[in-house]
Amino acid sequence: MPVVLSLSLVMPPRPTSVNVDEWNTKKLEWYHIYVKARAPYQCRRSTKKKSNLLKNEWMIRTHSISVKEILHDVSGIAYPGRLMAIMGSSGAGKTTLLNMLTQRNLANVDASGVVLVNGESISRKCMRHLSAYVQQDDCFIGTMTVREHLLFSAKLRMGKEFTDKQRLEKVEDVIIEMGLSACASTVIGTPNGLKGLSGGEKKRLSFASEVLTSPAIIFCDEPTSGLDSFMSLQVVNAMKCLAKLGMTVITTIHQPSSQVFTLFDDLCLMACGRVVYQGPADKALNHWRECGFPCPHFYNPADYIISTLAVAEGKRAECISRIAKIRGEFEKSEYGRMLNANATLVSVAKTNRNLDNGRLHGKCRGIFQWRKTRYAASWWTQFRCIFHRSTLTIIREPILLRVRFIQITIAALICSVVFFQTHIKASTVLTINGILFNAVRDVNFMFQFPCVPAITRELPIFLRENANGIYRVDAYFLAKTSAEFPLYVALPLLYTTVVYWLSGLLPNVFNYLFASLTTILITNVAISIAYAVACIFGETTIAMTYLPVFVVPMLAFGGFFINANSIPSYFKWLSYLSYFRYGFEALTINEWSGVRHIPGCFLWSKLNGLSCPRNGAEVIEELDFSESSLWLNIAILFVMCVVIRFIAFIALFLRVSLRK
Known about the structure:
The chain is of the alpha/beta class.
């Protein structure tokens, strides 16, 4: 890795909002940022090449067709204790610049440039440790209260050097600072269920979650999007308070109100992928006036500035000329000259770090000290916190508990009424087999399909929290599945208890317990498949579309509709993959293996002209099952549950890896 150089760059004196210790503040600088969109198809080649600075350095060369230049020679500086707003019309490159500074979402671009913190080059890992990123969409577990959510974040984000008492005190302080005291015990709320926080309160909660670790730099992506002017003012006021604490706050924003505009300390105005102004917000209108574009009276300054930087259809040449004039005047100004001087110093000092496949090279040293591991909390702490949160979600979420309980009870009662006290006799052999297969089918479909949207709904929250280094993939997966396991034991047990005794199956405790074990295993295999499909496809609509493709063939070859020996040879493999078959076979053997005589067989055969099984062994044989396979079926169901759940974990892990 190249040697990191420290620079003493020339800048005009800049006031700060508060007096803070330089050790805890970070000045962020970026120079010569170029970004080009990458074509869908590219060829990447890795070569191991000697370097004058490092003997063994991996160089990644990306061969691609760049279809559009998004950013062109962008430079700027953000100061601690000040709030900087990145503004511009749609397509100006605001979000791309923010992605460059945060070193996120750069997989599909060719980028180059240098990002410095306090004059030193910085790696992606270090940037994530000393900064926080408040994204545009607010993702929370809606069943948790504000205080519970912040305590969860504090336990996993604040290092081991903090005690539980210190974490609790920090949470209470942040609640007060962000103006969340009135709603601290209120549930966050879900889009189509629980009512909770307003949009502005959710956005302030996003800030509260990020400032628990006292980051030096805070990035915000369109924090006022979707909020009215009053809520927007509250959110920007919260950002201003963070800046007054000595943090470097950078935000992209679209159409701020005039009140919001007055809260900004600095502006970075962009047009056509270039910086046209970067300096104090209160001097922007003077600059526009000097360029010959004075802002009309009683006009929102932000709206006017953005309108002058927009490229209108049919007036492209005129708009480009106006933008070039504004940019040219900025380069002649005091701040423009100083910024260009710093950019020149960076080039001369050869501190430019090429962005390699969207990731900036660099390292942290000196004042950039952070923990050696990516995660602040231990694996066990992560597991405990996620397990507790998942348990609260199950208890408080109506769809996950109450609705399913009612659903299971109604389905079990209907089945019990239809097949009430079906005693063993020649005319009820097929009926009893139908009860057994119906149990297998019910515990599959009643749990499997509702499970998919529950997983995909939480997936964006997991991906964001994992990307922020809050917890590991394996800790999340094991904790979530462990928290849900009692639910998927209790509900099939309830169904089996009602159906087994009311339907008149063998009145034997051992047979009942074995049937309960079988339905529990079938349920968990079904849930494992739901997990795998949800983690593979990621979206509810797509996952629900493909789930029947996997399940329906398993149902068809489950042993009830067609005997195993009657299946064509080219479909035999589906029979061996069918968990319906193993569950149905286990229940069938459990029910019929102890039956020595089936009453009424002779009379039934005479009346119907068909052969009739005389005992349970013949019933099992007719279905091409084997009595000796009783516990083998249980073992196979258990192995299938573990293997499919592991496939789901691998799919989730790969989904995380591909996002990096």
